[in-house]
Amino acid sequence: MTDREVMTWAIFGRSSRELAQLVADSSFVPDVVLGIARGGLVPAGALAYALDCKALFTMNVEFYTGIGTTLDSPVILPPILDATELDGLSVLVVDDVADSGKTLELVHSFCRDHASEVRTAVLYEKPASVIRADYTWKYTDLWINFPWSTEPPITPR
Predict the structure, then answer these.
(1) Claim: this prediction has a pTM higher than 0.90
(2) What is the pLDDT of residues 87-130, one digit of tens each?
(3) Can you give the residue range of the structural domain that contains 46?
(4) Angle between helices 9-25 and 41-50 (to 10 degrees)
(5) Domain tally, the chain
(6) E strands of the chain, at which residues?
(7) For residue 152, is it within any domain?
(8) Ranges of the chain with pLDDT below 50
(9) Whole-number Å distance between alpha carbons of 70 and 108
(10) Which stretches make up the Phosphoribosyltransferase domain (predicted)?
């Protein structure tokens, strides 16, 4: 599959450590790691462990409806995080990929008025992203097969 970027579990292990090292090298110490569900949950957990951050929050955002198909704009789904929980904290927002960047931008904006500082981290960033992540492991313009989402659901809904 030359038209796709393939991330295996082994590559994910290495990439998440390298991404965490980028954060650590910048001297940014997040009080909270916030994973964007669903794709950002696995990377967020890995970064939280690597950065020794016990506060791990999630936000559910829907944007992709299939390969290459999206809603017009991303939508925050319930349960919605109480933004006042972020008051005065440094937040690292994590997602698997900044493709259009619209999801990452939405969550960054959601946090920005409450947190003392908001930074973003992604495994992959694409050239068309409307936001540049503060920390990126790799840049690509290919579709990405992640180990947690490549296989179809066991029990499709």
Answers:
(1) yes
(2) 999 999 999 999 999 999 999 999 999 999 999 999 999 999 99
(3) 4-145
(4) 50
(5) 1
(6) 4-6, 32-37, 56-66, 69-77, 90-98, 117-125, 135-139, 143-145
(7) no
(8) 1
(9) 19
(10) 16-151
